[in-house]
């Protein structure tokens, strides 16, 4: 198949330098390249011919991969934009060659006519790119939402922090666990424990649009800063981090780990993926560029939730690590890969009884955006503790619902949202006043939550 004919003029175009047009690479990578890989009934895929003997030579897709690497995507971008007239789809051979002549396309195309009308959704996607559309990015104008999963339910609660009300629900994901949101706010990703899938949710309709099969039972998830990959904890032996490409919506790799993985995180600078194992008692730090393990730290107890402190240049300074059956947290120096301290949360006041049921005794942590406070849950104490940074001194505490299991902060770090797993509620904490503002009813056994900017 050929999107560009084998005419001498096009052969010259193939040798021409890339256009200096403002065509958006991220849009190309996210929306144009999947069309080149798409299979249409009765047609060969674009890539089937264009990765071989045609002037518009695409890079071959690596064996076993679902899409191109970043480097090869850049090469594809340069090849194709040389065949595009920016701002004018009908003057761009890339669009007119595969379009039916009756719809304004060229007289012939060796690869056949893929689109019978300019109204075809794929053709419209290509046209939008040529006309200068870019992949939207989240801005401060977006709506802040708290995405609260409910681990014993088939719904995910969406909270508006301006009203502290549940304003939407994602339904139909049974035993939903971890959540992540694309940087442009267009999608929410949820790990589905019942089906062992990563479920993809349209942020506007709140409907599940895709289910990506995983290598095993999932737990928590995280997403890269550029939104290209979702990292899924595989919580069964032998343990792995599944890497899901968000363009092709395919699992492209499983990174082996020493023990089932409980949580995955992306460091604040986006350079590393950090996986913690309860059974393996390990912290595995993965290079996000190569998907190879950079270093591993063996702990004496199972590794539970983590939070990250930054250096002034944005790199990771310390990891705060909650551990199995320990009512407190460990402090790990990121540069030396060593544990440097272990901090107990304060003991219960006389007369106050510990809460015996639920998850780990201390589960859920977050660092404020200004890097001045660390928020730590204690299920045993039924409270949240606030520590100053960098000295890790207790500023105060706030009692919350039963079995606090996770915490997320608003972008301005004024409010903390604490999932109370055994109260089926979320406590809203004013971090300056050190008090509970309200308690929001949600689904059954709420656990992981995240803060997101939605369109």
Keywords:
455 residues; mainly beta; Methylamine Dehydrogenase, Chain H; four-stranded antiparallel β-sheet; 39% strand; disordered N terminus
Query: In CATH, what is the class of the largest domain?
Result: Mainly Beta
Integer-rounded radius of gyration: 25 Å
Largest sheet, spatial ordering of strands:
3-2-1-28
| Range of strand content | 35-45%
Query: Sheet with the most strands?
Result: 4 strands, antiparallel
Please give the CATH architecture of the largest domain: 7 Propeller
Task: Compute the number of structural domains.
Answer: 2
Task: State the low-pLDDT regions, or none.
Answer: 1-21, 137-141
CATH topology category name of the largest domain? Methylamine Dehydrogenase, Chain H
Number of H- or I-type helical stretches: 6
Q: Give the CATH H-level superfamily of the largest domain.
A: YVTN repeat-like/Quinoprotein amine dehydrogenase
How much is the average pLDDT?
90
Per DSSP E runs of 2 or more residues, the count of β-strands stands at: 28
The outline comes out as elongated
Helix and strand content put the structural class at mainly beta
- Fraction of residues in helix: 10-25%
Termini, distance in Å?
38 Å
Q: How would you describe this protein?
A:
This protein folds into two domains: 8-130, no CATH class; 144-454, Methylamine Dehydrogenase, Chain H (7 Propeller), CATH 2.130.10. It contains six helices and 28 strands. The protein has helices at 8-15, 25-37, 46-50, 70-81, 93-96, 121-130, and strands spanning 143-150, 155-160, 165-171, 176-181, 187-192, 197-202, 208-213, 218-223, 229-234, 240-245, 250-256, 261-266, 272-277, 282-287, 292-298, 303-310, 316-323, 328-333, 338-344, 365-367, 373-378, 383-388, 394-399, 404-409, 415-420, 425-430, 435-441, 446-454. The strands form seven sheets. Strands 3-2-1-28 form a four-stranded antiparallel sheet, with no helix packed on it. It has a four-stranded antiparallel sheet with strand order 4-5-6-7, with no helix packed on it. The longest helix has 13 residues, at 25-37. The model is unreliable at 1-21 and 137-141 (pLDDT under 50).
